Each structure stands twice: as C-alpha cells, then as structure tokens.
Amino acid sequence: VLAELSPSEARVGPAGTVAIRRRYGGEFIVPVRVNGRTLEMVFDTGASSVVLTAEDATAAGLSFGPDDYQVGVTTANGATTAAPVRLDRVEVGAIALHGVRALVARPGVMRQSLLGMSFLERLKSYGVEDGRLVLKSR
C-alpha cells in the first residue's frame, strides 16, 4: 500500500538503463523531468507522441493559447484537438533527450500525461523485465 502512495521512482542501472516498478493497478507511472520540472506520466506505447495535460505543460513553462490547438487527435473520450510543442529536454533517470515532439491536451481532456512513442522510439529499447519497466538509452 505504501508503494502505491509514494511517488514513482526511476532506478538508474548500468549503461544508461532505468527501471520503474509496476503500480498496483498494473500501469507504469514514470517520473519524468520536462524542461527541469518533475511530472508523472503513464507509459503508453499506444500514444504516438508524448502528451501533456494542460496543467503539466504550464508547470513545465510552456506557453500556448486557444489558437494553438490545431492537431486533431482521438482519445478514449472521443475526438478533440491538441497543441503541438517541442520539449527542450525530457529526462527519465539518467536518460535525457532533447527536442522531443509532444502535444498539449486541451484543459480538462486528460487527467494524466502520457510518455508516448515520440520519446520511446528514440531509446535503444524498452520492455518489461521481472515486473519492472526497463528503458535503455542509445
């Protein structure tokens, strides 16, 4: 129970490897630093891009307005639009990537940001080993 209530933790291993434990509900909640701000994101290979909630995007220092929501997206709640952004720096443990494509969801559309394929496809590999999500940098 305490593990569920505590913040997610990325354990750094050898040679640019980061491991994250699975939460009780089965998902992996990944602690991610975006432009220096720590956020928690759901690991989601079904998301073609990193997707930030409007609140997380604001916390990370991103600025956008109502006219920026121009990219059509389909979510579990239906079709909507999102604002395209490029994140200067995205870090998970010892893994740091620059210039990561992302989308910002309209306010109230999402409850949790997603660590999607625009980050994951730039890694050497990712997978589940012994109940932990393991990310490996190039």
Q: What's the short story on this structure?
A:
Helix content is 10%, strand content 49%. It has helices spanning 2-5, 54-59, 117-120, and strands at residues 10-12, 17-21, 29-34, 37-43, 50-52, 71-75, 78-92, 95-105, 113-115, 125-129, 132-136. The chain is globular.
Q: What brief labels describe this structure?
A:
138 residues, mainly beta, 7-stranded mixed β-sheet, 4-stranded antiparallel β-sheet, 11 strands, globular, disordered N terminus
Description:
The structure is a single chain. With 138 residues, the protein is mostly beta strands. Helix content is 10%, strand content 49%. It has 3 helices and 11 strands; from the N terminus they run αβββββαββββαββ. Strands 3, 4, 5, 6, 7, 8 and 9 form a 7-stranded mixed β-sheet that branches. Strands 1-2-11-10 form a 4-stranded antiparallel β-sheet, with no helix packed on it. A hairpin with a 2-residue loop joins strand 3 (29-34) and strand 4 (37-43). The longest helix has 6 residues, at 54-59. The radius of gyration is 15 Å and the shape is globular.
Lay out the secondary structure.
Elements: H1 2-5, E1 10-12, E2 17-21, E3 29-34, E4 37-43, E5 50-52, H2 54-59, E6 71-75, E7 78-92, E8 95-105, E9 113-115, H3 117-120, E10 125-129, E11 132-136
Parallel strand pairs: 4-9, 5-8
Antiparallel strand pairs: 1-2, 2-11, 3-4, 3-7, 6-7, 7-8, 10-11
What class would the helix/strand composition place it in? mainly beta
Q: Report the uncertain regions.
A: 1-7
Number of beta strands: 11
Strand count, sense and barrel status of the largest sheet are: 7 strands, mixed
Helix content: 10-25%
Q: Span from first to last CA?
A: 35 Å
Summarize the helix and strand pattern as letters.
Answer: HEEEEEHEEEEHEE
Q: Helix count, per DSSP?
A: 3
Shape assignment: globular
